[in-house]
């Protein structure tokens, strides 16, 4: 069992230094978990850490998902089979640049419920979820013969709130459900006071300035063990901004300082993985800032699991401070040769609404959450019964939308636009206004966490609210297209093609010539692309491909003349 004695960790009564790396099972194909964990152990780590995202496991209230990439027990068992210890962070909120910080979107349907505090309604939902999740973890606790030796209470709570009653209740729920291993909180060094509990281990999150961070912990809790629960050795990327990197030697040098001072560490990230489907989060400070599909993070392993120079530099440092185990050779993952795939069928989204959308009708526009929709798109439609130029306030649209009048594209609006008032010209006595809205990822951190999507309040047009709306909810959990209905070239358009493979391997879809949208391979949503970058390719892992026939579908939002996509043999993240 992992315990604390004075200023150090003890494992089964012996001093122990935690050398951990983060791998998020929900960002990595299940078939590659062993490969990534073997490489973690070969580097010199003795522990793996992962968050557990609530929205991944309970996408709809009361509907639980623990199969495939959501099989947390299999991930734990794989780590156990390799002799790795495990830190779990099942906090209801995880941040992690993950959609809504891991909270399920259906929480936002209740406008009155407060998040991440001792609101009875919020706590009841947590307990309902933990009633299902925690019994799956208990058999893997070190106290029951497993390798899970620590769990986190909440996550970076000092950067959000000060409700100690909420933190205490979370700890009580753990105890009630049989969690009897070491518990901890984690925060930035300047936020630990509000995010910690007096008799629970306080850990730190930082990327540099080791001495300063340790000093702040000593000032708050003298003689505490020094665990950097998130050692930021890279950073995430946002659309339209540069790709982040950190010098490998700099990261290794900071690690050496921690280890020389007897500190323990968890690398965030050891292996970043991918924000598949619509699971990327967003940040919002001055402006809304959605995260890209790749979560490469400039980690020790690349998004596709390749060993980096940073891996080698860190391995050198870990060798100085301990014994590196005899390396286990992971299975070889082949890379497909470059090839072009034709997409020879297309249909406008407007022509295939009956096969991809759920229909709603209401006197006012409904948000996604009010329609029990978590992700994707909504097409809103109403009638404007006058011929006039009219001012519209776009501030209630989240996040990005295409506007059409009488079937003709008029304008794109985005929540970051400085000008929220736009002028629309309605040419007929009776007009159809359509607004196609994209949810680009809910905010995952800070005061804007309650980030509802779609049209979140009725629209103010020409000094009036507009009533009586039709809505087409497009979540794309399954993409069923009817190409016989293709009658218009109006975008968004779906494109589809098939291709044959004699063997599978990893590949990277080069989206040059495509503007913005999503790619689906054999029904699996690989994630978003956007021509503004920084990433230019989408990672396509071999397990999502078939020997024999494969189907690729692309939802192109903005318009393209492309009829093909290049399967490249290397990534381009900018």
From TrEMBL:
Residues 492-550 form the Beta-galactosidase galactose-binding domain. GO terms for molecular function: beta-galactosidase activity. Residues 8-320 form the Glycoside hydrolase 35 catalytic domain. The keyword Hydrolase applies. Pfam families: BetaGal_ABD_1, BetaGal_gal-bd, Glyco_hydro_35. Keywords: Glycosidase, Hydrolase. Residues 365-474 form the Beta-galactosidase 1-like first all-beta domain. InterPro entries: B-gal_1-like, BetaGal1-like_ABD1, BetaGal_gal-bd, Galactose-bd-like_sf, GH, Gly_Hdrlase_35_cat, Glycoside_Hdrlase_35. The active site is at residues 156, 230. It comes from the Bacteria. GO terms for biological process: carbohydrate metabolic process. PANTHER family: BETA-GALACTOSIDASE RELATED (PTHR23421). Belongs to the glycosyl hydrolase 35 family. This is Beta-galactosidase. It comes from Oceanobacillus jordanicus. The lineage of its organism: Bacteria, Bacillati, Bacillota, Bacilli, Bacillales.
